[in-house]
Structures are given as structure tokens and as C-alpha cells.
Amino acid sequence: MDEKRKSEAIAAARREIARRIARFCTTLSEEELNLLLDRMAYVQWKYDVAPIVVDLPPLKYKERELPH
Question: Which of 30, 37, 35, 36 is nearest to 15 (CA)?
């Protein structure tokens, strides 16, 4: 993915996240809110680009037992 598309995707995610969480983050300073939005937008972009799908094998019966 080129840098322009990456930047646009992160900016779009940041705007959407800001729209959704702004009313809940009233106690944060502007700097703290911007840092939070930057991090959340990056995580959203990473998930959109390469979602992690973990398919764990079923546990064996002995592995499910509680330790004594």
C-alpha cells in the first residue's frame, strides 16, 4: 500500500473514531485526545489491512481440567 493511501485511510479512521468518542473524552486535554485518536486510527488501519484471524485447535480433555 502506498503512503498516500495509507495516510488517507488513517485520516478517515481518525475522523470516524473522533466522531464516535468525542462526547466520552471530555476530561482529556486536546493533546491527550489527539494521541488517543492517532493510536486508535493506526490500530484500526492495521486491522483493516491485515486482520488477525486465529483459529485455535480444540483443547484436549486433560488440558481443559482445572489445576488441583
Answer: 37
Q: Output 51 or 45, whichever has higher pLDDT.
A: 45
**CA pair distance 43, 52, nearest whole angstrom:** 12
Domain ranges of the chain: 3-49
* Whole-prediction pTM: 0.67
Indicate if the alpha-carbon torsion angle 58, 61, 62, 68 is positive or negative.
positive
- Contact residues for 49 (Cβ-Cβ < 8 A; gap 6+): 1
- Distance in angstroms (rounded) separating the CA atoms of residues 24 and 44: 19
Integer angstrom CA distances of residue 64 from 27, 57, 67, 68:
44, 13, 9, 12
